[in-house]
Design goal:
Protein name: DUF3352 domain-containing protein
Structural class: alpha+beta
Number of strands: 54
Number of helices: 18
Helix content: 10-25%
Keywords: Membrane, Transmembrane, Transmembrane helix
Distance between the termini: 93 Å
Largest sheet: 20 strands, antiparallel
Strand content: 35-45%
């Protein structure tokens, strides 16, 4: 009897223990786990969603999924889901299993070399447990997946799965009714260690009370770990730009943002916690009141990227530093004169090899005081270097040379590093500093021509959706910044960048902004696809009413501007040698009977006390200048000997003060220069050259010196001064004939100014103005009949392409010598090639066959616009309408001036 009692007692104890253990296991499984506590601390980004189907549906409606689905990452994800879905049990597919769940996805930089993701998926019911168990069994039985391995790791059972079809695998485990899955077993093991160490703290603990998913039209909570962002960007960017990235990342520590989607736009809005570490950007700035973006009238449309700081005390950007130079006190005073705004602006590049132009902007509280300090600093630096102060007049502005290494950094801190020397100009209430004087000249031209943000319809629409006041903003135009992105992307990632070019350029407008609110920053990230007009993408010609004249039109339509309102007009010449003006409204304007054919295009200058636009051009032996009524200016035309046969007209304004020089050349290579009163210039009556000119002479202003480049058809290039004297080191012999001009990149002096020429046989030669050849590169020449020329952009000539013609084929090469496209034509005769560049990818190539009278227009990708040619045998004129995002084409045919509108599809 006692033995039986003992037996039952032992059995009861064992049974109770088993029941207790089973209860505890069931209870533990039922405990709700905060998935955020499972995320490793080094996660760079964490995305939380709660409605998978709704998100995907909205992405499809807004065409965003069509864009993102082209990414290799999206392809891989969809492929992996499709394989899993193919072995899912019954009709309960993965999409139903994932729907209406709070799912986390964390992004990590693994081993400082690659990106990895972790998915955290709750299992909410017995049915979902059964689905998951059956799915696991089906995976192990499927021939798609290899051997499924289970292993124990610190008390958790991990399952490793390998896909034999695509060679990828993943690891997962279940924890308290949650599945944690990743392609990285290392990350899964890190999560196991995290949960076995005790009670982990959420990476988003600072935002424990924030849940944007409870609000309408919000599709995700997005957590950002700014401290991990440098490692993330370091996977894609070269080390030379990483110091700036690391410093900018110290503005904030972490953020929780809401994700909203609208038609062609992504919004991420929320709050960021400030970074409290010593020497962080936040502690350096100590911002209070955010400031508006007021420098829009001075930002050119070719801006690629801008870092903008808005604070009442801009001098806070400087870290406390001692400047013991002779002009240190003046530099400190100049820095303290700035207020409200400072910006670092990168301009659009046309080549990967080209260092991007950048400009420092700083708003002045007292422009008169800033001007006085600039003058004082100019004199002090010149005195310290025992040199003469340098200042250049450019129109109504004065550009000063401040030969102080890293002056912008001394004024505004380390973000503004990278200025070997500085040229400064004051424009209204802003001080602008650039490393190259040519950059400031181009910028002043853009401001004068109103090619700026405040006048751009597309830019206005974008800025209306951004924060109107901020302490720090980063604006990026991915199209304008394309070559910059390629330049600073690592070699390993550049191929991916090129493969995703369409997506990157489609969502061209990016704005990231931070506005201080108490001890946090309101944060806004906007990624926007620019609005397209209703005809965009159709790639068709829409013929508009043209004009018919009494006589045949013998010249192409020359683009000009209205002398009063600067609207776009045209000038043509008919067979009776009458010059005809066509206004922007398509009406006839002034006329001028020349009595001889034009020998040049029509140039325009601001001249006279009213500074109105005048027209300049040449005939065989005359130089003409007329006003906006078609009447000759005083002293014009200039009558040259009737034995001359003029070839080109070049117009120079050395000081930008209206004192113009007119330079012409004849068919024997003689150069003649005159002022606007008709007086010949000493040294140019004539300046005899050895051969005819290959192109119009080009004037450069370099370090206070005037250089006139003269390319000759025999391959010699001369560099002449104002008096016609040859600079030392010239002429340069390219050792091959030339049929086109040169392209110059103006530097601080003759040594640092680079000029590029392309010979008839494809030798690309780059030299400086000291006469030293820097580089020679022979382009691929398929046959001896392949001939080359440099074709500058038709509007302002700041960029160029190289054209190769060979037996009816025409190839276009960019400035990095990469072939963009090649086309074949009916005849083998030489073609007229024109290149129009209106910023970013707004490019049009016009190739004209004069024999068959056909002109073909191509977009930036080499796609034939309109799917057909137009009947024409002369050059064409193309205007771009930035607001409507379309183009207007003008060309002549018989006695008609024809006009067509067209758009360029993606």
């Amino acid at each position: 009897m006692p033995k039986r009692i003992v037996f039952f007692f032992v059995g009861f104890v064992v049974l109770a223990s088993l029941l207790y253990y089973g209860f505890n296991q069931w209870k533990a499984g039922r405990e709700k786990v905060d998935l955020w506590t499972l995320v490793p601390d080094d996660a760079a980004l964490v995305v939380e969603t709660n409605n998978h189907q709704a998100l995907m549906q909205h992405l499809r409606e807004t065409e965003l999924w069509q864009t993102f689905s082209q990414l290799p990452m999206a392809h891989r994800f969809e492929e992996d889901i499709a394989y899993l879905d193919s072995v899912a049990p019954g009709n309960q597919r993965l999409e139903r299993f994932l729907d209406e769940k709070r799912i986390l996805t964390s992004l990590h930089v693994e081993g400082k070399t690659s990106l990895s993701y972790v998915f955290y998926i709750p299992v909410n019911s017995v049915g979902e447990h059964r689905f998951l168990r059956n799915l696991t069994e089906n995976i192990s039985k499927s021939d798609i997946f290899g051997e499924v391995t289970n292993r124990d790791y610190q008390g958790q059972q991990l399952t490793d799965v390998y896909n034999t079809r695509n060679g990828r695998g993943f690891t997962f485990f279940t924890y308290h009714n949650n599945v944690i899955l990743s392609a990285s077993p290392v990350l899964v093991e890190e999560i196991v260690r995290r949960v076995t160490r005790g009670e982990p703290v959420s990476v988003a603990a600072a935002f424990s009370n924030v849940d944007y998913l409870q609000q309408p039209d919000v599709y995700a909570n997005v957590f950002v770990n700014y401290r991990a962002l440098p490692e993330l960007f370091g996977l894609f960017l070269k080390e030379e730009v990483m110091p700036q990235v690391r410093y900018l990342s110290t503005l904030c520590q972490s953020a929780m943002l809401e994700l909203k989607l609208e038609q062609n736009t992504l919004f991420l809005n929320g709050f960021s916690t400030s970074e409290g570490l010593k020497n962080s950007l936040h502690n350096t700035m100590q911002p209070r009141k955010p400031q508006p973006l007021a420098l829009k009238p001075y930002l050119p449309n070719r801006t690629a990227m801008m870092l903008h700081f808005g604070m009442q005390e801009i001098a806070r950007l400087r870290r406390q530093q001692e400047n013991e130079s002779a002009y240190g006190v003046t530099v400190d005073s100049l820095a303290r004169s700035f207020s409200q705004e400072a910006a670092l602006v990168y301009m659009e590049s046309n080549s990967i090899s080209q260092t991007p132009e950048k400009v420092m902007y700083a708003h002045s509280a007292n422009p008169a005081r800033t001007k006085a300090l600039i003058n004082r600093l100019t004199n002090q630096v010149a005195e310290a270097r025992k040199a003469q102060p340098f200042a250049e007049k450019y129109g109504d502005y004065t550009i000063h040379l401040l030969d102080v290494p890293e002056l912008p950094e001394q004024l505004l801190g380390s973000v503004f590093h990278g200025f070997e020397q500085s040229y400064a100009v004051q424009v209204d209430g802003y001080l602008l500093i650039s490393e190259e004087v040519a950059t400031l000249r181009h910028l002043l031209d853009d401001i004068a021509e109103e090619n700026v943000w405040s006048k751009s319809g597309g830019q206005k629409l974008f800025l209306e959706e951004t924060l109107q006041e901020a302490n720090f903003s980063l604006f990026l135009n991915t199209v304008n910044a394309w070559y910059i992105l390629n330049r600073y992307t690592t070699e390993e990632e550049r191929e991916n960048l090129l493969q995703n070019a369409t997506i990157m350029k489609r969502f061209a407008q990016v704005g990231l902004q931070f506005a201080a609110v108490e001890d946090r920053y309101y944060t806004s990230l906007l990624i926007r696809r620019p609005d397209l007009n209703s005809t965009a993408g159709q790639n068709v010609f829409e013929e508009e009413p043209g004009m018919e004249f009494d006589n045949r039109l013998d010249t192409p339509p020359f683009p000009v501007q209205n002398a009063v309102d600067r609207s776009r007009e045209l000038v043509v010449q008919d067979s009776a040698n009458v010059l005809l003006n066509i206004t922007a409204l398509g009406k006839r304007g002034w006329t001028d009977s020349l009595g001889a054919p034009l020998r040049s295009d029509v140039k325009q200058i601001e001249y006279g006390p009213d500074k109105k636009l005048r027209y300049l051009f040449i005939t065989a032996d005359r130089i003409h200048a007329i006003n906006n009524q078609g009447q000759p200016l005083e002293n014009f035309p200039f009558n040259l000997p009737d034995t001359l046969h003029l070839q080109h007209l070049a117009v120079f304004d050395y000081e930008k003060n209206g004192d113009y020089r007119l330079l012409v050349d004849d068919n024997l290579g003689n150069l003649y220069m005159y002022n606007m009163r008709g007086a010949g210039i000493q040294g140019w009556l004539p300046r005899r050259m050895d051969y005819r000119l290959a192109a119009e002479p080009q004037h450069l202003r370099v370090g206070g010196r005037d250089v006139i480049l003269v390319p000759l058809e025999n391959g010699y290039i001369y560099a002449l001064n104002r008096n016609g004297d040859t600079y030392p080191g010239f002429p340069i012999n390219l050792k091959a004939p030339l049929t086109s001009g040169t392209m110059a990149k103006i530097g601080a002096d003759l040594r640092r100014t680079e000029v590029t020429a392309v010979t008839r046989y494809g030798n690309v030669v780059t030299f400086n103005l000291q006469g030293r050849v820097l580089r020679r590169e022979q382009l691929m020449r398929p046959s001896k009949r392949a001939l080359f020329q440099l074709v500058p952009e038709s509007s302002n000539g700041r960029s160029y392409v190289i054209v190769r013609q060979e037996q009816g084929k025409v190839a276009i090469l960019d400035q990095d010598l990469n072939e963009l496209f090649e086309k074949r034509y009916v005849t083998s005769a030489s073609k007229i090639v024109q290149y129009f560049h209106f910023g970013g990818d707004n490019k049009v190539y016009a190739i004209t066959e004069t024999g068959p009278r056909k002109t073909y227009l191509y977009d930036a990708k080499g796609k034939l616009i309109g799917g057909r040619s137009i009947e024409n045998n002369q050059q064409v004129t193309v205007y771009y309408n930035e607001t409507a995002n379309d183009y207007t084409l003008y060309f002549t045919s018989g006695n008609q001036l024809k006009k067509m509108r067209f758009s360029v599809g993606e």
